[in-house]
Amino acid sequence: MPRFSIIVPSHGVAGRLSQALDSVLAQSFGDFELIPVCDAPDAPASHVVAGCAGRDSRVAPVHSPPSAGLAGARNAGMRAATGAYVLFLDGDDVLVPGALSALDARLADTGDIDVLYAEHERTPWWEGEPTNPTTLQLPKTPDAAFSPDQVPQLTGVQLPAWSAAYRRLFLAEHRIAFPDGHFTDVGFGGLVTLKAEKVAVLRQVVVRHLVRRQGNRLSLPGEHHLELLSQTDLVLTRAAEQGLAPDRLGPLFEQLFSAVLKTAAHARRLPAKRRAFFRRASRLYRRHRPAGYGTPGGSLGVQHRLLASGAYTAFRTLRGANQSAAKVTERLPRRRMLRTRMRYARDLRRPLDPNLVVYCAYWGRGYACNPAAIHAKARELAPHLRSVFLVEPDQAHTVPKDIEYAVIGSAEYWEVLARAKYLVNNANFADAVVKRKGSVHLSTQHGTPLKKMGVDQATYPVVASATGSFAKLLARVDRWDYNLSSNRHSTQMWERAFPAAHETLEYGYPRNDVYYTATADDVARIRRELGIPEDKTAVLYAPTHRDYHTGFETGLDLEAFCEEAGEDVVVLLRAHYFYDQGRAKSTGRIIDVTAHRSSEDVCLAADALITDYSSIMFDYANLDRPVVVYIDDWDVYRETRGVYFDLPEHPPGPVARTPQELARVFRDGSYRGPESGAARAAFRERFCQFDDGRAAERVVRRVLLGEPPESIPPVIPLAERVPAPAASTLVRS
């Protein structure tokens, strides 16, 4: 009886199979049998195997049809094996030199054991350094052989089958075989762990695993990922039947569902049936959760709780937090190159330019929002000031021709930041920007907060991870001298979210001035520019960003909505600015206005608004036109994102939770009926307090011209304001 039986499935790896077989045959320890498993005698791999068998009598090939998969091939090899210990090797991996000698020596030290776990190395085939994931997967273990009860974290489900040597009679006595289907290593590893009584660890690399360029089959998209749940169910069912001790069942449960959660969080792996995967996983989680099991802490614990409750939408939110953080980080300007940093340091020692104003909006997306409105008014009231807008390189072409700008990261960018007396932003300047004595920083914000902001996000892991360091956030806030507010609600929330010593200016949002200064001709012109037919009711659909989306998803079949809402309805689709690709994708009765530079223009053109949690509802309410709130995930959003008030209890108009309800309020006209008007009036009273058409003037006079507070124009009472007229297709209530 040979010491080792080495089983090598060969399906789909004929091109590299010879390297795998040669790595075994070249071992200095020669007491083994090599069992390649081929698809059929005439398969490509069979010719490679035949050559090896002709040269070495230790090669004993067997056959297994491709339909049996990896599990069938390994099981066929086990049936043919005669060695004391069984090893598995993928057909495109290799045994490192001396591997069998190291295994034999370790087994001689430990005596007969059921399983000997060993380290392995992952090697990218194209570039990159090899890694050894087993240094983390193999916890600290005794030097001698031990019982699995002593190290319950060593479950085997996280290790590939080729990262261990198994006593053949142990496998035969307990009838342990590879379960059918994909993720068979998970099932096999779990079944082995349940039955093993004596194990040991070899802290030495035995297998060098080649990381394929095209990726492992288990990491590629497809419905085969659903089979992970079957393997999880199998192992935990056997554990329950065996009456596995709680201190071992907990780690086994947690490690199995760690793999499940990783798959559920990976959008690319499950392009379809993601929801079905999550729901089935949720049922399995509740069925197999050990009594008294305590969920992990931090973000992982949040995922466990969401899975247990079946909160699929919230889980998707958590999954996308890191992507969102990366997108935001990419927008933040950074100092580049030593020469630029040295120049910035030099410019910081030069005097401030008392007439220089630097503006930035949305991390350099262009000439927009409150900074643009303040800039326009400053040209009128303070023409002596030099104004420079900061933009990313790919947005420079969007800046109006008569506006001076500096590209973020350029030498001019750092020079104006160093020397400007006034700095105006609707987000924040980069961390590297220094707040100079005598400079004036104005934060204009870019919306009224419904969702939690700033440090209030700290207790919501979904968004806290995307926010990054709260210490760095507060350091940026400490640079503010003034912060704009458009209503008392915002004033209170900003004080909570951004605690610092700045002064709050309850002047309204300058970008909303146009809602009171635009004329009927302006509205008609904008509608023509957007291509809205004169006889149609234009409904603006503006959903907010969802952290769990890797790309924009409307969550609503807009074509179906148009059909059900009425023949006169067209939809203006405006996705969140994260998804602005600079090009329109209009189809049929859907007019894509995402790329339109001005959200104010789009609002002026719209006869009604549909939104969810977007701050656009607060701006649009200034127009006193119908607003419908469409929220099919309110409970999930509230729990995961955090909100400052109960929107369904205090909405600006009808609340719809299904596509059918949404279409009905437009079909029957209730979206602009008396109840809708009453809700809107209460909403405007609360959230349109300071927007009256003169916000930009107040800001320029107070911040840029230094006029005293008592000389600033007072806010016009809400009842005396006259919003821009709606199009003739709808009479404003």
Index terms:
733 residues, alpha/beta, eight-stranded mixed beta sheet, seven-stranded parallel beta sheet, 28 helices, 21 strands, 39% helix, 14% strand, elongated, disordered C terminus
Describe the structure.
With 733 residues, this protein is of the alpha/beta class. Helix content is 39%, strand content 14%. It is built from 28 helices and 21 strands. The strands form 3 sheets. The chain has an 8-stranded mixed sheet with strand order 3-2-1-4-7-6-8-5, sandwiched between helices. Helix 1 (14-25) packs parallel to helix 2, helix 11 runs antiparallel to helix 12 and helix 13 packs parallel to helix 17 (461-467). The chain is elongated, with a radius of gyration of 33 Å. Residues 328-336, 548-552, 577-584 and 729-733 have low confidence and may be disordered.
Tell me the Rg in angstroms: 33 Å
Question: Per DSSP, what share of the residues sits in E-state strands of 2 or more residues?
Answer: 5-15%
Q: Could you estimate the helical fraction of the residues in percent?
A: 25-40%
Q: What is the CA-CA span between the terminal residues?
A: 92 Å
Tally of helical runs:
28
Q: Please state how the strands of the largest beta sheet are arranged side by side.
A: 3-2-1-4-7-6-8-5
Structure summary:
39% of the residues lie in helices and 14% in strands.
Q: Topology, pairings included?
A:
Layout: E1 4-9, H1 14-25, E2 32-38, H2 44-55, E3 62-63, H3 69-80, E4 85-88, E5 94-95, H4 99-110, E6 115-124, H5 134-137, E7 164-167, H6 168-173, H7 184-195, E8 199-211, H8 227-242, H9 246-264, H10 274-288, H11 298-309, H12 312-319, H13 321-331, H14 338-348, E9 353-360, H15 369-381, E10 386-391, E11 405-407, H16 411-419, E12 420-425, E13 440-443, H17 461-467, H18 470-477, E14 482-484, H19 488-497, E15 503-505, H20 514-517, H21 520-530, E16 537-542, H22 558-565, E17 569-573, E18 590-592, H23 599-605, E19 608-611, H24 616-620, E20 627-630, H25 634-641, E21 655-656, H26 659-667, H27 674-687, H28 695-704
Parallel strand pairs: 1-2, 1-4, 2-3, 6-8, 9-10, 9-12, 10-11, 12-13, 13-14, 14-15, 16-17, 16-19, 17-18, 19-20, 20-21
Antiparallel strand pairs: 4-7, 5-8, 6-7
Helix pairs in contact: 1-2, 7-8, 8-9, 8-10, 9-10, 11-12, 12-25, 13-17, 14-16, 15-28, 21-23, 22-26
